[in-house]
Amino acid sequence: EEVVRGEGFMVLADRRQFAVMAFLNATGYDEEAKGRAMHPVRVKVRELMEANLAEHPEKVKAWRKYRQGLVRKYMQVYNYEDYALSLSTDYPFRRIRPDKELGYSYTAWILKDLPRVLNEFWETARLGEIWEQVQPQYLAELRKYNFAKMQRQMDFLWSYLRMPRQDTFMVVNVPSLLDCHYHAICARYENYYYTVESPGSHSYGLNIHEYLHSVANGLVQTHFRAHEIKLLKYYRAGKHGPLSQSYQHPVGFTWECLVRALDHRLALLQTDDPAEQKRIEGQVAWETDNGLVLTRPFYQALAEFERSDLPFDRFLPTLLERLPDHLMSSDRQVR
Fold it and tell me: For residue 248, with 0-12 CB atoms within 10 Å meaning exposed, 13-18 middle and 19 or more buried, which class applies?
């Protein structure tokens, strides 16, 4: 009931993600996108947890202290979400995937006590009862996903890249209703390629942005060194921008900009609406101006790729070679 399967695709009401996001909400995670209200399920869960935990102030204090201990205070939501996917699928939670599969290897020791903490939290906050109350809303989310649409998007993506599909993943979409709007992460465990996606970060199809990371990240890693001097200039110009704070490594910064550029080009090619085309161009400019300064140069360079007949993996070295050595004035350092 909590899993819907298609050919190569799956959507999942994931209790691991529910548990870890409930824990974060109960211990100080109040973030929400500007101008957006928390999802109604998030509001309801927070209220129910507050009532259930009212008699356990010392435990809440201890959990908040845990969150702020050692270097855990530097852990981002995506670190917890990725780690949660290495756990068993239901309470009581335990590690079932090896450290080598973690998206962030350092969480193996930083969050090593999290399963124990989550199990204590699940019992004390009576999360099992809360899950039963909100499960219908999660199941309703699952029914909104369109597997036929996802397959069309997958086919178009690989056709655009002029490459045979490079993987045999089972693509798993996980709605995360307890997170703030517009957040999404990708993670691979075994042959499952997860996209954990919050409200507003997807359109109930293939999350093209997150899936593109499975293609672009390895290609950027392969070619980064040959163009390092040039790419470091872009990174240094943009790393202080507000959109760059989660991408504080030159390689990760570069592949994030490339993925965004690819995502926007794919969207542009699938619309004939002038207003939508203008919106896409405006989004590219906004991301570039707010720190991800390689997005517009990559976006513009992809037009040349589209006029070529090369597959994307063979064209990328040419794209990087032809990237301007100096930022355009409109793309200069973001502060």
Answer: exposed
